[in-house]
Design a protein that fits this description.
alpha+beta, seven-stranded antiparallel beta sheet, six-stranded antiparallel beta sheet
Length: 572
């Protein structure tokens, strides 16, 4: 009996839906009166973020669910929409439940009427938006200001953030770039994350189910009872009305829920919706806009029973709403496959030999990763200077260096050539940029940096530093430059004799120097004593006259010619 009544109710609702849609086409009242309002916000105003919630440091509470990997060869992801009639406290309620696999490719948040709808505060019916976006299943999404059309909360549509919460934080549902499903409360920083950004995101009111448990009480405390217009926040939660929700099940499938109703007359409350979703294996879900906004469209056709009246009160009309949640044929993310592939049935087929990943945005040159000596490009490994080969695993050989080993080394005398820069590492005995210069006299070793340590400052072997030049390969060249450091080949002295002669010579020189020193000292003593005696005589006034003839013979003859009375004023 219950089953037959359910089928009859479905038929009646479908008929009403048909007439409601037909009324719009016939011009009997194309727009609704917005008379079934179920609004959680009293009036437009600025309110501090989470004014009634405890202050929490760090990131907001939310749940993340990893994407389920697609089965190889599984084809298109399944999208299934079910109509149901269920009984809640003796009330028969009709609605729809939709499941979509791989939500990253099959689910979108669409602005009203298409791109730019939130910026222009446009309102459009779910059916019109769904036809524009190509949705196979669509229903109304987030909340909005009925008077102005303003989108409320954070909205990200196909990677574009088109609305900001403005500090108001309520329950949110979104999908990040890697397919991770996110449900709960998000901070501004988390919404704006660029490392793994959101590709789809919308805001609701009340976190219905968290990690498999009803979370309504916690949501009421966290989201504050001052955020509704219908009455108390408790009334918003408990009143029966048309309801919608979005979430996911344990398989990572997207779940859309819609229930027909009219505020305080028919439908379900949030507790009943949460319990129903738990029975459908839903793990996380949030409540979306309800009341007269609740609309379900299947393949471009209205499939729900609207609660708003048309201009002609005999009919019901779907409301023009804000954002729409849309299930569609699989689409590539991003649609252009990052410019490196072609989208075929919702999957990117990468072009070239090295682009990989679901979005064709990762370069992969094989497990060796260019042997860590190069950069993977879309044409393959681009090797660093000094390396070559398809995997950059081969160092330059045969006297070559540089990028692709295209340059020829100029090193001489067996010097090692750096495969990257071409610089020469000279062997012992040579120096210079190309190692063509031999070490200068008195130096040896690598780079000619070590001084020779031979006796008499004689040169050494420029390669080994050995002072034994008899076995040196360049002996003749060295001998011609420093003959004084080598004895004639025919003269060979024993070490003892050479040491003896050297000691005798030094002894003779030393004795001669001592003798000369003594003679010099004696002479100086005599000279000193004579000078003292002469100085004493001068001090006593005794002068000695020395005729000039003693120094010049001509002066004596001149004196004899003078008169006899003339006398010299000087006498003994």
């Amino acid at each position: 009996m219950a089953a037959s009544m359910g089928r009859w109710l479905l038929f009646a609702l479908a008929s009403l839906s048909f007439f409601g849609e037909a009324s719009g086409g016939l011009g009997w009242g194309a727009s609704s009166l917005d008379d079934d309002l179920l609004l959680p916000y009293r009036r437009p105003r600025a309110r501090p973020a989470r004014a009634c919630a405890p202050v929490r440091v760090g990131r907001r509470e939310h749940e993340r669910w990893p994407p389920s990997p697609a089965a190889p060869g599984a084809g298109r992801p399944a999208v299934r929409a079910f109509a149901f009639v269920a009984h809640f406290a003796g009330r028969a309620v009709s609605g729809h439940l939709t499941r979509a696999a791989e939500p990253l490719r099959t689910f979108s948040v669409v602005e009203p009427g298409g791109p730019g709808g939130c910026a222009s505060r446009r309102r459009a019916t779910v059916r019109d938006t769904a036809r524009t976006a190509g949705c196979s299943v669509a229903q109304n999404g987030g909340f909005f200001r009925v008077a102005t059309g303003e989108c409320l909360g954070d909205v990200v549509s196909d990677r574009r953030r088109v609305s900001s919460a403005g500090g108001l934080r309520n329950a949110q549902f979104g999908i990040r770039r890697d397919g991770t499903l996110v449900t709960g409360y998000l901070s501004e920083e988390e919404v704006l994350d660029t490392e793994n950004p959101f590709v789809q995101l919308l805001s609701g009111v009340v976190w219905l189910i968290r990690n498999g448990s009803v979370y309504i009480n916690e949501s009421q405390a966290a989201e504050c009872d001052e955020t509704q217009e219908t009455g108390s926040f408790s009334k918003f939660v408990n009143v029966i009305s048309a309801r919608t929700a979005v979430g996911h099940d344990r398989k990572g499938q997207l779940v859309l829920f819609h229930a027909d109703g009219q505020t305080e007359q028919r439908g379900i409350n949030l507790w009943e919706m949460a319990e129903f979703l738990l029975k459908q294996d839903v793990v996380n879900a949030i409540n979306l806009d309800g009341g007269g906004s609740a609309t379900f469209v299947l393949n471009g056709t209205l499939a729900s029973y609207p609660s708003d009246h048309c201009q002609d009160n005999r009919w019901r009309c779907p409301r023009s709403v804000s954002t729409v949640v849309c299930v569609h044929e699989p689409r590539c993310q991003p649609p252009d496959c990052s410019g490196h592939g072609t989208c075929v049935e919702g999957r990117c087929q990468c072009t070239g030999h090295f682009w990989r990943g679901a979005a064709c945005n990762k370069l992969d040159c094989g497990p060796s990763n260019c042997s860590l000596h190069g950069l993977c490009t879309e044409t393959g490994c681009r090797c660093e200077a000094g390396w070559t080969g398809s995997n950059c695993s081969e160092a330059c050989t045969n006297g070559s260096f540089g990028e692709n080993c295209a340059n020829k080394c100029q090193c001489q005398n067996g010097a090692a050539c750096d495969p990257a820069q071409g610089t020469c590492t000279c062997p012992p005995g040579f120096t210079g940029d190309t190692c063509v210069q031999e070490c200068p006299l008195g130096w040896h070793g690598p780079g000619c940096q070590r001084p020779c340590e031979c006796e008499h400052q004689c040169p050494c072997d420029p390669q080994t530093g050995s002072c034994n030049l008899t076995q040196a390969p360049t002996l003749n060249n060295i001998v011609s430059r420093v003959k004084q450091c080598l004895q004639p080949p025919e003269v060979t002295l024993r070490t003892g004799e050479f040491s003896l002669l050297t000691g005798t010579s030094w002894l003779a020189v030393t004795l001669a120097l001592v003798f000369l020193l003594l003679v010099s000292m004696v002479a100086n003593v005599f000279l000193f004593l004579g000078s003292r005696a002469l100085w004493s005589r001068h001090l006593d006034g005794a002068y000695v006259y020395h005729p000039l003839q003693e120094m010049n013979g001509e002066l004596l003859a001149l004196e004899k010619e003078q008169p006899g009375d003339a006398r010299s004023p000087f006498k003994d």
